[in-house]
Fold each of these.
Amino acid sequence: MKITFLVLGKTDDKYIIEGITKYLGRLKHYIKFDLIEIPDLKNTKNLREDQQKAKEAELLQKALNPTDHIILLDEKGTEFTSRQFSEFLNKKMVSGIQNLVFIVGGPYGFDESIYKLAQGKISLSKLTFSHQMVRLFFIEQVYRGFTILKGEPYHHD
């Protein structure tokens, strides 16, 4: 199985980029993990919220394949402990999924068309994080999940 992490926009903060790079380097020992950044929309101040979500959906759909198993990072999604998330990843791996795609939406969330494509939703927290921080937190949690599955001493209950 491969994991693809699909995000809108680039990360500008150096400390976040350093953290992402650190965990991407660690993850390659466990699974093929691709971080795909879709360029930000231009001139969004002239768009209504629904128009912006629709345009973002078009960009996201271009990056997806029909066989992708899509999980949205969404505030209304299922919350997991780190152990539960590792079990979730394990179930997906043994189910025969070839490409597990996690998507972070834009500032207003997802267009309805993206919700219809998804097989699930996960919430990282009831707290709200910047889209930049979510990237680092999520990649670290994937890494943590694999260390839990391998019985390595990274995670402490």
Amino acid sequence: MLHLRVVCPPGRTVEVRSVLDAEPGVAHLVVHPGVAVHPAGDLVEADVARECADDLLGRLADLGVDHDGGITLEQLDTVLSDRADAAEEAAPGDGADAVVWDELIQRTGEESRLSATFLTFLTIACLLAAVGAVTDSPVTVVGAMVLGPEFGPMAAMAIGLVLRRRDLVSRGALALAAGFPLAMAVTAVATLVFDLLGWLSSAGLDDLEQMDFIYEVGPFSLVVAVLAGAAGMLSLTSARSSALVGVFISVTTVPAAAYASVAVIEGRWSEAAQSVLQLGVNLVGAIGAAAAVLVLARRGSRRRGADRALSDG
């Protein structure tokens, strides 16, 4: 269940209540007249089944409440109520399959911004991946993959492509285009320091036995990227963020970027080129698969909406 809060002018409270009253997937509808201060108005609250949330948000936006009032939505972890159970049963579809598009756009939009925090996490992840690669430590590389924040911009680009939102595509592309070169440059400088201190040598890289997957590009590189991108978008649309950890571990973006920097400093040009290719394959494959998942989800939403319109008619 999701908790919906609507601040609206007093003149629109009746319309807002009517929209919520007419939805069988709504429970615990409460109206607080005149309690809102900025902007002044009434507060309407309700618990909503996830599968009907997207349609409700659209209807409320049609009333203009998002312009002269406000709409907020938050996840409820525990709801003990027979009325809530009945609302979820009455709502069409399955909550795990429902996509709340406004929630998805808001979430990925925030995670895809080019910020100091994003750049710091990506740089630290690349540094960890570089250390893991040169020490032949898969555990360190996996830790770097989990730390990497790059899936946010990738998801934003996928959503932007499907919804034709240039702002999301450009925002995600900017974060990736600026973030990876900066992180790779810092990693290259760190590798040079390691080399000067005698901690690293090109000959030592010949003995790495478990790091070949970082730069060896093959058909399974694309397969893994596609599966990870699809799983990542499914975890976002179904609000199951725990599954994202597995996605982060699957996508070989951060390790490839980090090893490319190491290989350049050590003059291993072929491995550097393959690492960059690996990075590109993973980015394109994951973004394309995530977009495909959204296309299928959007078609499913339209189909359910058409079926519901026919049943109401």
Amino acid sequence: MRLDKFLKVSRIIKRRSVAKEIADQGRITVNGNSAKSSSNVSVNDQLIIKFGNKTETIKILQIIETTKKDEAEHMYEIVDESYKEDFRKGSR
């Protein structure tokens, strides 16, 4: 399945156009390699997604073409989640 479609179907990112934009900006890696929106993903692949100040590492557990909201959370597992510190907050 295409990376952008997986991100939308799994509801990690709500819109496919946003998933495509993030991937094409180089903010997603698949198994350590920079990925484009058209990259194929498979079960057991590991994604690292950079959202602004948050970085998530996700393992793909299953690929389903269409899902309901409650089924989507079974498609992946969050392996790690980290946040960059905002240095501006402490400078007041």
Amino acid sequence: MTDNGANQQDLGAEYDSVNQMEDEVRAGKNIIILKRQEWKDFKEEERAKEAERRRRQERKDDDDARDQKMQDFMQRILATQASTTSTSATTSTTSTTTPAQTTRLPQRQIKPFKGDILEWTPFWESFNAAIHSSSIAAVQKFDYLKQYLQGEAFLCVENLELNDTNYQKAIDELKQMYGKPEVLIEAHLHKLNTLQPVKDMSDISALRSLQLRLQSHINALQTLGVDKSTYAGLLGSNLIHLLPFKLQAKWTESASNKVTDIDGLIAFIIQQVEAAERLNRLREQVAKPSHPTQSKQPQATPATASQLSVGARPDPAPQNGKSFKQKTTA
């Protein structure tokens, strides 16, 4: 009996030891599973961070490339402008050495300059041809200049005393503020980027205005030495979206529908506008207003002198159908 009790105690102790070992194994398995999950989460977080880092680097590279392209574009424009300005300065020096033949100013209208940078070039060309290049005294030129300046532009010369020395100072200050080539180029490019779209095909005046404004800014940029090829692609893609949907569809169906072909695109717009204008003129000629003829109402027969002397009334005008009294009694 004593041996049996001892065996049972040993078996119980061994059973408890096995259960404890199993609990430890299960706890170890749970720790392993937990560590594996933590490792997976860590790797996923690392991959997400790496992907985000690559995206940021790609965006930064794109921004840097775009900035570099813009800098290269402006450098080419300024280099071209510097060459054009040097040639113009040589021509101007040669022309100024030739004495003027007359002191009589031509009779012409010069539009006052109020400070709009896009109006400086036409103003200066008119003022230079009419007054600045003449042989009158500088003080007289300065007097004319003050008369043609208004608004912000007049403030540049308002406090300068009217004398020969200050005239050249005023010209230099105005050219410094409004005549810088890079500022003019930027202003015209901004105007091209902010042209208003035409939504309705029937709005012919808006289409014609868009075409004229487009050509005006392109011509000004060419005068400043900026070739159309430097901005043709960007301008063409923007210009397409300024047209009504029907014109966009016609352009895509045309044989030469390249967005980089600015001349072809402008020619297409001109062709469509002229066709619409001709159609409107034909419609106006066909649809003339018609005036309906009005039927003449019969007039009453005037009474004779003898009838008037006895108190007779003139005969009433003949009426068609029954009289009002007859109609009411019927």
